[in-house]
Amino acid sequence: MPPPTKRVDPQVLREGLRVLWVAVRAEPRVFAVSVGASALYAVTTVAMARVLGEVTERVVLPAFRSGHTTAGALAAAAAAIMGVALLKALGVAGRRFYAGLMQYRMQARYRRAVTRRYLRLPLAWHHRHPTGQLLSNANADVEATWAPLAPLPMAVGVVFMLMIAAVSILVTDVAVAAVGFLIFPAIALINVVYQRRLAPVATRAQRLRAEVSEVAHESFEGGLVVKTLGRERAETARFLDRAEALRDANVAVGRIRGLFDPVLEALPNLGVLAVLLIGSVRLDAGAMSAGDLVQVAYLFTLLAWPVRALGWVLAEVPRSVVGWERVRSVLDARGSLPFGDGALDGAAAAELEVRDVRFSYEDTEEGRAVLRDVSFGASPGRTVAVVGPTGSGKSTLTSLLVRLVDPADGSVLLDGVDLRDVRRGGVAAAAALVPQQTFLFDDTVRGNVTLGLDVSDERIWEALRLAQADGFVAALADGLDTPVGERGTTLSGGQRQRLALARALVRRPRLLVMDDATSSVDPQVEARILAGLRESGTGTTVVVVAYRKATIALADEVVYLEHGRVTARGAHADLLERSEGYRNLVTAYERAEAEHEAVERDAERDADPGAVQGGEEALT
Amino acid sequence: MTAIDQTSTTVGALSTLRRGLRLSPEFAAGLPGTIALALLSTAGRVVVPIAVQQTIDRGLGGPGGPDIGFVRTAVLLCAVAVVLTAVCAYAMNVRLYRTSEAGLSALRVRAFRHVHDLSMLTQSTERRGALVSRVTGDVDQISTFMQSGGLMFIVSMGQLAVASVLMLVYSWQLALLVWAAFLPLAFVLRRFQRIVSARYTRVRERMGDLLAAVSESVVGASVIRAHAAEERTGRRVDATVEAHRDAQARAQAMVALTFPVGELVAAVATAAVVVAGVLLGIGGELTAGELVAFLFLVTLFVSPMQTATEVLNEAQNAIAGWRRVLGVLDTVPDVADPGEDGEVLPRGPIEVRFEDVGFGYPGGPPVLHGVTVDIAPRSRVAIVGQTGSGKTTFAKLLTRLMDPSSGRVLVDGVRLDRVRFSSLRERVVMVPQDGFLFDASLADNIRYGRPEASDAELLLALTELGLADWLDGLPLGLATPVGQRGESLSAGERQLVALARAYVADPDLLVLDEATSAVDPATEVRIQRALEGATRGRTAVAIAHRLSTAESADEVIVFDAGRIVQRGPHAELVAVPGVYADLHASWAAQRTF
To answer: Do B307 and B411 belong to one domain?
Structure first.
């Protein structure tokens, strides 16, 4: 997120108007209707003042003077009032509804746009931005951006109203009008001061709102850790700190708004008083009638309230501008993966080549390349196992193979085509990754397996069978149509992994990349999965990250990674001979068991003088 | 519908409001003063129209012709009143912001804490995005209402009262007429309110869906990318965005309808006042000036009526938000901390006893049946069994993430649900399979369970666990940032950190739930050996399907279909045909070629 720039007020206002203009251009029809309704409301509000004035002049005063009236006159007065009110009602309903509609449509439009952007931006960008912040961009920031839209038509209507009132008052008396309308430059001036004071505070409040959301999101996501380590109190303190900072920022905003609102409300009242003062002088001079003055004064009292609508729009502008900047920072974020127009059209197993690949995460320190000079290949239909200690860069390698990220140097080629030259969607169609960490969507089993791919149920079941998931899926209440809950909470870790595997297999990938994808699956089940893959895996080139020997045994070649470099390549037996690191890694369990058995044998040998040992232990 | 919603949606609007206010005493702090200021500023709003009327009546329309001196005095006094009104309004606003923000902040924090106090099971039924919105957006809804609407309502009511009294002073007949016109409106509005309320509740629910969908598209970014599911995910998000938009529009349609109704009623009242006023005037009971003034008062009466309508709509929104926040607070944690009344376990190796323990997830079949087992202090126990055999459930009951449906769990002879959380969480620590890390440095994550641990202690712990080499490979060492959710590290590395975190917390009973499933064998063996040494003074229970853990354990407990079917040391169990021998055979088969 770019640091909030220090802004001068007219720019905020100009920027705010620009934001509103974006909305007007996006929804011209809705805006036109809402402004039309507002104008109708404005006209009828002024008309109502006129009607009341006329009724006073023509019906009320004559009646009081003469002491009698006719039913016709009274009926006409009532009808005029009701008629205008009906139009006014129409205006207010239209304005409210369409102003709301415009706001909601703009919110929806930008929420969609922001999320689409999330889906396009590269994973490196995602790593740099906390989930809470991204949620806040799509939620609170979009909301803040379009908040001025609700009172906007009213404000535009007010401008109409002011113009009509101005004409109406000007016709009556120029001097009175001039005094009365002095309040408007005053409002403009006060607003400039207001914007200047509010902008930095509002920016801070908005940022803190996002931070509060980030802390809550992270804390709830780590809920189990918080619970198991009993850190609820510390987490609450962390949240409290941000919540209180937000509170203080909101109070600071409140102080400024709290001053601005009453001043804005007082101004029209002062205008009325000025009108009365000048009006009485004009009246004295015989320049206007008492009835005229009543009407003008009445117009001003009527204006006092809607004029605040202008204030509402202006009050929302600083927040709106801040929200807009945050939304734009997502929409303008660059660095999406460029695509070429190459195709990976073959139907048979793909040929994989990794050439001199170097990779480092942008935000890690210089010099920590996660992968360096990595080169290997896999001929069509062959299986390559990638083995290496924890943290040696295996998972990063797998994400390069399906182009979740691009290498800093070197290239990854499928059938001789550099992945960067393949058109959008082309790599995913040919290669499938089963990640180490399973992610399921809040959807049905079917939805999670197909992810929108149009495949028959038979093919889904076939994939589930291969992944050894058909058994438990068949036992679910609604089979394929059973919802799995958010992140698949209703399933066990092993079940989730098997669904993720089925998700990859249903695509019949020409390159299948498995990143320790069966770590939560029972050994027996895994053995069946591997057997199934071996039997049916003729059309697939497989790269598998594994520790289990049974998995490694499937491989035609083993690539051994250490600290991001390939330190050995070859057949398993070969590597056992040549690479000490590899030998230590894959034989760790046997050595541990052998050692353990040796210890036990020793213990058994020593078991006879056990009484002595027990005695010793009792003494310590 | 989640557990949290079930507790909250049935409560009525008024009782929600009452409960909400009671839970946040901060709102009431200095309320009389705030209301006094509000009433003063209301009085100010009434003064101007009266001044207008007085000026017209006496200053301009008096028997001796216009009295400019009087007008000037009246205007000056009014100006003072207007300024005083503004000052009062400012003071009131500041007070209001201060108390409401204090109250909301406290409410936010309380709800946040309560979410953590809910049992793991309740937490997992709730979508995280929705939980977040309960402590953010839902609270913001209340603040909008508290800061403008709520007070506007009070002010409007005050204005209504003042206007009513003045109307009565001018003409009780006309006042009654106005009231009679507005009375039916109250009933109509009540009906409207109910519909509006239901529609706003729907808006909040749709918002929850929306946030969950957006969060999915962010958290699941790599899967979406890997399978080119962008379009489909985008469509899913679009659907929730549009559902939310439509729900908003439907609520707004109802709100928009309430206004014309008020407008028309106001017109009826005005027309009636004109007609009746003229008739009364002819009868000599009213002057022309009084009638004009009364018409002013009618507008004065109408505008707060409209404001009140609007505020009531805003209130619906706020109450919907409030209900969702209260929904959190009203959800009773089903795994509750006995707190001060609970017992404190003295330090030292822990002894565990399960007595005829059964467990079933809510609405599901039992997954554990009659589990009775003793775990001796200082022993190292391995729990094995197939997926779904009840191992993890056992671990969760052991660490009191859940309570058993039947039977009981005792630690050091004390019922687990009688032990204070502060004591329990200090002495019993579980390392779950998915080691969630916070977006901070490696050091901060490792000392998460014991924040006072120094860097030297952390280094020592890592060395003891055999992880010094791994740490050396990280260029920034302990200062390495782990990224959000620890994603700058690999899954295996995250497990190492999670393990070190629990180790540094120094519990007396350590429960490992597949805590090294993503770690390479050599490192795992090294850790195991380190733990063997380190756990000498403590009790350790490890769940693993890599049976290397079982081979070196003091005792192996074998689960099958929710029951303990075998117990004993590895060497003993592997020698007899049975579940364990089968498990071990397939494990061994995997290890060898």
So the answer is: no
